[in-house]
Amino acid sequence: MAITDWPIAERPREKLLSLGASRLSDAELLAIFLRTGTRGRSAIDIARNLLTTFSSLSDLLGADPARLRQAPGIGDAKTAQLLAAMELARRTLAEELSRGDALSSPRAVRDYLRLTLSGLQHEVFLAMFLDAQHRVIASEELFRGTLTQTSVYPREVVKRALHHNCAAIIFAHNHPSGVAEPSRADELLTQALRQSLSLIDVRILDHFIVTAGTVASFAERGLL
Q1: Distance CA 151, CA 210 (A)
Q2: CA dist., res. 79 & res. 71, Å (int)
Q3: What is the pLDDT tens value at each position of the chain, 224 positions in all?
Q4: How far does CA 205 lie from the centroid of its chain?
């Protein structure tokens, strides 16, 4: 049954306008973004299938465009709509972090990293460069690797830190395997980066490992 055949009070768009976005399910919110269904499938049907196909909303919104297009009922237009929604959310979080102390907004930091890294099928090493008030100056993907590893060069990290004239850095990388536990190599890399950056008086505030369901903090685990 098409959504237009539903009772008005149950249609996602009308429900949102009358009750507020927080009262809608994930599938109903996605259906509003998707706008229309396909032959024999409503936007709600497509949204539910997406939520089943992807392990989480973060995984869905961070998914590679090619992977999105493979989902039934999702073509170029709907892929573009979902990617635009993700980018708006990421820019909103980036604005929040640029205005205030990143340490006082741990949720925003985690949400930003989850949206940026969680859906990738290869490892990416990212740095968030912060000023003396811990406001984000810039966020950059520094290195890109394979499914299981990324080569990170401390000398290049130091060069980028000097370029941004930052006072502190937050590092993050994803584990496409879904395992959020820091490896011994991750710990050794973080120690090497801390030693290199200390020479130019730049502090590492944290190093996060991002998966579809978890964002693990080195600082919280006493690894910094």
Answers
A1: 17
A2: 10
A3: 566 667 666 778 888 888 888 888 888 888 888 878 787 788 888 888 888 887 777 677 767 788 888 888 888 888 888 888 878 877 887 777 677 666 666 777 888 888 788 778 889 999 999 999 988 899 999 998 876 667 899 999 999 999 999 999 999 999 988 888 888 999 999 999 999 999 999 999 999 999 877 889 999 889 88
A4: 19
CA atoms within 13 A on the CB side of 73: 21
Residues 6+ apart with CB under 8 A from 206: 170, 171, 217, 218, 219, 224
Do 45 and 30 meet the contact criterion of CB atoms below 8 Å apart?
A: no
213 three-state secondary structure: coil
| CA count, 13 A, side-chain hemisphere, 29 | 13
Distance from the Cα of residue 2 to its chain's centroid: 33
SS3 130: strand
Residues 6+ apart with CB under 8 A from 92: none
Q: Where are the alpha helices (DSSP H) in 100-136?
A: 106-117
Contact, 179 vs 83, CB < 8 A? no
